[in-house]
C-alpha cells in the first residue's frame, strides 16, 4: 500500500500523505516512503518546488504509537526537508498534532485553512516535543509557543500564524497558496537553492548542536513508565493516572 502519493503540475511536485485510516500518523513505513519521495524530488531537475499535503481531515497525528519510527529516522527526515535544495511548502486543511508539527516546521513555507487546528500533545502522554524542537524553536516565538508546549492545548490557525508556525492562513488554502507557488515558479532554480541555504543556516546549526541530545532524550522519554501509562491511556481513551 502506498502511503505517500506523488503528482506534478507546472514544476511543482505534490507529495500527499495518504494514510487517513490512522490520521497519517508517522509510522516507520510512512517516514521511509516520504524520505524516498523527497530524495527523488530533490534530484529531479524538472521540479522547482515541493508541496507537502494530506488526505483526510488530519495532516498528521504525530508518531504512530503502534509502529513508531526510530527517533533517528524522524530526526533524519526533518533535517532532509530543511536541507533539500528546493523549497518545501506545507498545505494544511485539517488537524496537526505532536510530531506532525515537526514536519510542518521543517517546511520553508506553511499555509493552512482556517479549519486547521494544532496541538503539542506530547506532555499529555508523558513525553516532550524533543526532536521536533530542532526545526520548531529557531522559527517560532518562544514566548508564544511556551503555552502550547507546556499545556498541550489545541490552538487555531490565526494563533499558529502569530507564533510563526504558519506563514499564512485563509478560508481557501489553495487561493492563499496560488501567488506563493507562482512566485516559486518564477524564481531561478539555483537562486532558490542558495536563498534557501541562507534561510535555513540557523536551523541547521541547531541540528548540528542539539540533534544527538534531543534524539536521545526522545528515546529515553518514550521508554519511561510515564510514557507507557500515557500511551496506554491514550489507546484506551481514558485519562492517564497523573491527571488531577
From TrEMBL:
GO MF terms held by the record: catalytic activity
UniProt-listed Gene3D superfamilies: 2-enoyl-CoA Hydratase, Chain A, domain 1, Lyase 2-enoyl-coa Hydratase, Chain A, domain 2
Pfam families xrefs: ECH_1
CDD domains linked to this entry: crotonase-like (cd06558)
NCBIfam families, per the entry: PRK07827.1
Protein family according to the UniProt entry: Belongs to the enoyl-CoA hydratase/isomerase family.
Name of the protein in question: Cyclohexa-1,5-dienecarbonyl-CoA hydratase
Organism taxonomic ancestry: Bacteria, Bacillati, Actinomycetota, Actinomycetes, Kitasatosporales
Amino acid at each position: 500500500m502506498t502511503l505517500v502519493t506523488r503528482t506534478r503540475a507546472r514544476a511543482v511536485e505534490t507529495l500527499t500523505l495518504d494514510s487517513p485510516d490512522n490520521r497519517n500518523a508517522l509510522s516507520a513505513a510512512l517516514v521511509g516512503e516520504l524520505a524516498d519521495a523527497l530524495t527523488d524530488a530533490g534530484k529531479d531537475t524538472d521540479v522547482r518546488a515541493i508541496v507537502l499535503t494530506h488526505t483526510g481531515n488530519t495532516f498528521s497525528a504525530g508518531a504512530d504509537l503502534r509502529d513508531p519510527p526510530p527517533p533517528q529516522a524522524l530526526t533524519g527526515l526533518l533535517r532532509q526537508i530543511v536541507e533539500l535544495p528546493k523549497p518545501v511548502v506545507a498545505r494544511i486543511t485539517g488537524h496537526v498534532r505532536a510530531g506532525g508539527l515537526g514536519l510542518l516546521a521543517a517546511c520553508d513555507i506553511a499555509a493552512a485553512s482556517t479549519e486547521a487546528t494544532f496541538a503539542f500533545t506530547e506532555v499529555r502522554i508523558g513525553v516532550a516535543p524533543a526532536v521536533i524542537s530542532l526545526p520548531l524553536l529557531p522559527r517560532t516565538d518562544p514566548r508564544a509557543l511556551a503555552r502550547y508546549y507546556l499545556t498541550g492545548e489545541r490552538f487555531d490557525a490565526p494563533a499558529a500564524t502569530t507564533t510563526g508556525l504558519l506563514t499564512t492562513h485563509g478560508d481557501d488554502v489553495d487561493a492563499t497558496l496560488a501567488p506563493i507557488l507562482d512566485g516559486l515558479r518564477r524564481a531561478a532554480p539555483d537562486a532558490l537553492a542558495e536563498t534557501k541555504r541562507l534561510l535555513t543556516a540557523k536551523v541547521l546549526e541547531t541540528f548540528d548542536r542539539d540533534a544527538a541530545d534531543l534524539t536521545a532524550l526522545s528515546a529515553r522519554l518514550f521508554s519511561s513508565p510515564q510514557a507507557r501509562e500515557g500511551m496506554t491511556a491514550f489507546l484506551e481513551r481514558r485519562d492517564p493516572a497523573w491527571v488531577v
